[in-house]
Write a sequence for this structure.
């Protein structure tokens, strides 16, 4: 199993600014995933982050808007850049090894005003 | 790629009754089907999962069934309790990599379950 500490748990930000979300895993993991969950909606994958390589982004998400770092096997960050109210959402990090259980952080509830 | 449909979107039951949530998937190569429970303000947590080599799995009041031919799987909660109230997500993952991308979980849209005391 893996325990993921995600912070901040929530934030209210001004439009045009950026927010960096951090995830710390209590064990070394190969892959980390970043999801967006809009209010009352399902989880949409933003990107997959492997240590030592550039993140792979899903359709509709770009690196300039959501830069990701993966400096080691236990840590990753997601930055939401140049925020607008449409970026208000819950952002979740996750880890999963192959076809096994995925573990999630508690999420970051972002409100852009 | 994979597409997962989940029904119903909301479900209200009386305490003690059973609740059933159904999902269908499109990719016949999918071989792992987890169910997640998400309580307010928390990340999703796995409650049960099933692999394509079995048709049913049970854990106390929770069971999951899988019909590979029809490509659908269901979550069954018996003797529901108020603390079962949450949003439930089904998901599927394919063993096939598409275009070089790693297979990843595809989630249904979620079911908001309310258990009334």
């Amino acid at each position: 199993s893996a325990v993921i500490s995600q912070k901040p748990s929530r934030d209210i930000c001004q439009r045009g600014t950026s927010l960096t979300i951090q995830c710390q895993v209590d064990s070394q993991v190969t892959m980390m995933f970043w999801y967006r969950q809009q209010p009352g909606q399902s989880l949409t994958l933003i990107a997959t982050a492997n240590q030592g390589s550039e993140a792979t982004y899903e359709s509709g998400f770009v690196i300039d808007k959501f830069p990701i770092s993966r400096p080691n096997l236990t840590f990753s960050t997601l930055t939401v850049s140049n925020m607008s109210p449409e970026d208000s959402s819950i952002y979740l990090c996750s880890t999963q090894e192959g076809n096994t259980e995925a573990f999630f952080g508690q999420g970051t509830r972002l409100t852009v005003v | 790629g994979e597409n997962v449909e989940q029904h119903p979107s909301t479900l209200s039951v009386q305490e003690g009754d059973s609740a059933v949530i159904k999902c269908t998937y499109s990719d016949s190569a999918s071989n792992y089907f987890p169910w997640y429970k998400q309580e307010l303000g928390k990340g999703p947590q796995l409650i049960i999962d099933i692999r394509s080599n079995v048709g049913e799995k049970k854990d106390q009041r929770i069971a999951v069934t899988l019909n590979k031919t029809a490509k659908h799987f269901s979550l069954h909660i018996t003797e529901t309790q108020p603390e079962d109230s949450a949003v439930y997500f089904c998901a599927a993952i394919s063993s096939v990599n598409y275009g070089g991308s790693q297979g990843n979980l595809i989630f249904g849209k979620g079911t908001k379950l309310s258990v009334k005391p």
